[in-house]
Every structure is written in C-alpha cells, then in structure tokens.
Amino acid sequence: MALDQYTYVFVIGTFFAMLDAYNNGANDVANAWATSVSSRSISYRQAMIFGTIFEMLGAITVGARTADTIKNGIIPNAAFRGDAGVQMLAFTCALAAASTWVMWCTRHSAHVSSTYSLISAVAGVGVATVGAKQVQWGWYDGKGLGAIFAGLFMAPCISAGFGAAIFMLIKVIVHMRKNPVPWAVWSSPFFFLVAGTICTLSIVYKGSPNLGLNKKPAWYIAAVTLGVGGGLCVLSAIFFVPFIYSKVIKKDQSVKWWMFIYGPALLKRPVVAEGEQAKVPNYAVVQDDDEDESSARSAASIGESTEGANNEKKLVESETKQLSYKEMQEAGDRKLKAKLMEKKGPMGWALRTLRDNPMGPGQIYELNNIKILFKRIPAMVVCGLLYGLHYDIHAAQTGVSGTPDGARMQRVYAHAEKYPNETEHTYSFIQIITACTASFAHGANDIGNSVGPWAVIYSAWSTGSAAAAKADVPVWQLAVLSATISLGLITYGYNIMKVMGNKITYHSPSRGSSMEMGAAITVLVFSQYSLPVSTSMCITGATVGVGLCNGTLKAVNWQRVGLLLFSWIMTIPIAGTLGGVLMGLFLNAPHFSS
C-alpha cells in the first residue's frame, strides 16, 4: 500500500498529539503553578506569562531525552517488523486514548497524571498490536515499563523528602528566630543560587542532542552551571536584598517595584513614608468571603414569600437551607462574569454580546437564530481564548466554609503555624524563581508525552520506514507542542487551579517555594535518566512533605491525598484499556483494496 494513503493517519495523529499537549498544559502545568497563585506570590496572569516562557525553554533544551523513552522504550521498534502504517496507527490510538481521558478529567476538575495516562495507553496499544510478550514490561536499562512505573511510588516520596528538607532549612534558619525578617532578607540570595544552578545544570548536563549540549566537556558544564547560579546569586544580593530590605525592614511605604534598579543605593535612601507595618499582602488569608458575596448567598437562599402561614413556614425553611458546593461555585462564576462585563476590553465585549444575544425559540436553522449565531460565534471564540486569563482563582477558592470540605480544610489550616507577612513576602519573590524552575522541569519532562508519539508518526509517514522512529526528535516539533502546552495552560488551566490550591495543606510563599523546588529537583533528576515522571505526583509529594513539617499528621488533608492517589491508579487501567480497544478495533476492522 502506497505511503501517501496513510496521510490521513498522520493528520489525525497530529491532531491528537496537539490535543494531548493542550490537555497536559491545562492539567499538569496548571497544577504546577497553582501553588504560587494560591500562595499569593504571583498573579494568575503573571503565572501564565512565566509559565509559557519556561515551559518552552525546558521543552526545547531538555525535552528530547524523555521523548526518546516514550518512542522506543515501551514498544520495541523491531516489534512492528518494518510496517510503518501499523506503527503510525498504534501511536495515534495511544494519543487519542490518553488525550480523551485527560480532557474528560480536566473538564470535571479531576486531577490525573497525563504522563502515566499516555504511558498506559501506549502499553495497551502495544498489547493489542504485537502482543503482551513484545511489550517491555521490565526495567530494560531504565526505559521499560518497570522503570517508568517505579516512579509512580518513588517520585512522590523523593519529592516529599526534597521539599521537606528545603522547608526545614528555611524553618531553622529563618522562622525559628526571634526576629525572622532580617534572616529571611539576608539569606534569600542562597535560594536564587539554588534555582539558577538547577536550571542551568539541567540544560547543559546531558542536554538536548539537537543543540549539541550532550557533547560538552566536564569543565564547560561546571563553569556554565556555577557561573549562572553564582551570577544570579550576586545579582540578587546587589538588587533584590536592598529592595526587600527597604520594603520590609525599613517599612518604607514609598518603595515601588521598579526601584530595585537603585541597588545598594536603597540602603542609604532616607525613609520617605514610614508605616507601622510593611506594605505587604496578608498571606494568612485563605478562605474569606466578601460581604457582597455573603449577602448574595443569603439572598439566594431565601425563596419568594407569599401570604399565609404555610408560605411563612416555607420561608423559614428556605432561610436555613444551605447552598450546595456546586451552587456556590456557580454563584462565584456568575459573579466573576458580572465583573468582567463591566470592563471595556475584548472579554467584556464578548460577555455582553453573549448576554444581549440569546438564542431565540425554534431550531438553530431558523433565520432569526442564524443571524444571532453569527453574532455569538466571534464572542464565543474570544471567551474561549481569554476567559482563563481573567479567571479569579482566589474567588473560586472562597465560599466553601459552609460545606464539609471547607470545615475539613479549616481544621487542616489550624495546625499550620502562620509566619509574619514580612517574612513570607520575602519568599514570594523566591517562589517566582522556584515556580519558573518547576515549570522548566515540567517542560523538560512532560513534553515527551506528546512529542514522542508524534515524532514516531511523523518519521514513519515522511520516510515510510518504522525504523526511522529511532531518529532524534526535531527541535521544531518540541517548539510546536510546547507552545500548545502553554495554550492549554492559558485557556483551560483554571479548571485545575481552582480546585488544587490549598486543598492538601496550608500554603504560604516560604512553604510554596520549598514545594516547588523539591518537585523541580525530583523531575530534573528523573529527566536526566530519561525516565518520564509525573510532575503532578512530584508537586503533590512535595506538598505533603512540607505539610508534615508542621509536626502533625493533622496538617495534611489525607482525604484529598487519597482521592489523588486513587485517580492516579485508576488512570493506568482506564487509559490502557481505551488505547488497546481503539487499536484492536482499527487494526481488525474490515478494509478493502481496489
């Protein structure tokens, strides 16, 4: 059969590769940034910008290693016996199964591992295509399913250890002092050093073969790594320390963000507007309803009153009725949309257009409805692209105090010590660096989920040979799918962010930076050995590890951890079965030749 007859398989495979990357951004990357946004270290829009930049950097410079494991480590290339068409179909079905499952979970704000979803789908496809004996279930030099699934248990534990060690270091050096604020300020360059060193080391040590970084000598690796890490440490000491010193120690209310360029001159700058407290956010606030939201909820719980004793009784009953958690979330969404409608930008125009042009009676093909539809379609496109950028994560996490989940989290927060806002504010800047490191690590690791199968499909389609899958992954493929990951984060990531922040344990900038750094170190270690690992599992493990540093098991929401663990485990059989069934149906479907 001529190769160009399989072009439609390549097109479908490309679509599902991009859909899988999109879901990866909406699920795993959103979870990685949920810690920073929930800790109030960074705004949602800033997280989108930094997330996009560092996701692409990690994917392009380091991502090719884990992609090779996805391509050739689960189903041996020889198992296809040179049949490029079957190989293309196999990886297309794997992408279709994994992306469908992850998208369904993301739509319902259920957090699953996109990494293990795809790996399980590839294994299921392998069983349906070449038989269970041909799938590499063992270790296979660290590239088989045995090594990959070992990370299911090892990665969260290792990440918990790293996160706990970093936070305990902060706790001993800073939080346990009688006056912790100066200690936080003067020790901050060390964490800039750690973040810069880890990022640089992951790039130049066994870096992308396409960039020639895997052939650099040891002296080059050491010089670049120490140079960049040390340089970032020195720059933070020159510019960041004087800036934060003036803001939280001298409590100068006139200090603006751009004044960091003054450097050491800020240390001698007279205090212009001294305040009793430093002008920093209140990081201790977790769940706090606005007055108008509370009044709206009370008003919503009161039914319409009518005359008579029976109606009065119904009114009393309705006043005591509590809205469900789903109703509270829907009320929060309506409140957010009402605020956005008042804005002058594209988002406000789009929401007003949808509000003012509802579909009329009758079928969609009615002339009146067709006219309305032409007005609604541009607005719907704008909403789809921009709604995520305008989503209020903090508002979505409030309003649950009347539910069992809210009461449970209040008990968890009560066992976490709250540190001075000035100290936490210092680590809010450090958390931006650690979040960027975590995002870089995610791009380095999880890009292989989508680009590995897509590279196989493209190679088989363009060369007609199944053996071409052994070739290196082109940089342009890494760039395209990393951009798609960022698109998923920006437009759909709020579905995961709104449920993951502060749901496991109490978050604050010093805790969040420890969680992110612990997860980033773990992911990068696994990436260096070409082992795909779930960044979601790593950040969850680090979150639990930091939570336990409060000195009690009650500081962790074990019900949420159990639900996450259950969803991870169920992903393996569900995604594997979906992939195997799809491949079995297409491979054995009746086909005709001319």
From TrEMBL:
Pfam families: PHO4. One of its GO terms (biological process) is phosphate ion transmembrane transport. GO terms for cellular component: membrane. Residues 288-316 are annotated as: Disordered. It is found in: Membrane. The chain crosses the membrane at residues 6-23, 44-64, 84-104, 116-135, 147-170, 182-205, 217-245, 475-497, 561-587. It is a multi-pass membrane protein. Keywords: Membrane, Phosphate transport, Transmembrane, Transmembrane helix, Transport. GO terms for molecular function: phosphate transmembrane transporter activity. Its main location: membrane. InterPro entries: Phos_transporter (IPR001204). PANTHER family: PHOSPHATE TRANSPORTER (PTHR11101). Sodium-phosphate symporter. Belongs to the inorganic phosphate transporter (PiT) (TC 2.A.20) family. This is Phosphate transporter.
